[in-house]
Amino acid sequence: GSGDGQGQILQRFPEKDWEDNPFPQGIELFCQPSGWQLFPERNPPTFFVAVLTDINSERHYCACFTFWEAVESPQPQSHARNGEGEEEEEEASAPVQPAQLFAPKSLVLVSRLDHAEVFRNSLGLIYTIYVDGLSVSLENVIGNLLTCTIPITGGAQ
């Protein structure tokens, strides 16, 4: 139809909420502020950071890296032509490949720390592994990213 849709969470890490840091509800709404829409061409990846404030006035930095993937059309389109002969009419009703559409897919990193460049690099790494189809599991990559220590700005190395 119009190409508008709703986002949904396909996978998340950790799978269950941490007691001191629950998963932000409605995070998929922040990934596509203009709405989830299909596009006729593949757009370049985008990156931005949104700052969400919870009920306790604590900030959560939501880094969002969005790229576009080809989607299959649910049904072939029929192409109509004006023709005089029966043979032409039979050819005219043959299905024609619909134009390929691209849907946005977002990788989101939520943190209490404000380190936009680290977020961009981490999400870029995850994106590269995903797109290149490397044999590394995303669970291991994300686990390794969660266990790295980031020094406080201006603090000791």
TrEMBL record:
Pfam family, one: uDENN
Taxonomic classification: Eukaryota, Metazoa, Chordata, Craniata, Vertebrata
Source domain of life: Eukaryota
GO CC annotations on file: cytoplasmic vesicle
Gene Ontology biological process terms from the UniProt entry: regulation of Rab protein signal transduction
Official protein name in the record: MTMR5 protein
Domain UDENN residue range list: 1-157
Region (Disordered): 73-96
Organism of origin: Eulacestoma nigropectus (wattled ploughbill)
GO molecular function per UniProt: guanyl-nucleotide exchange factor activity
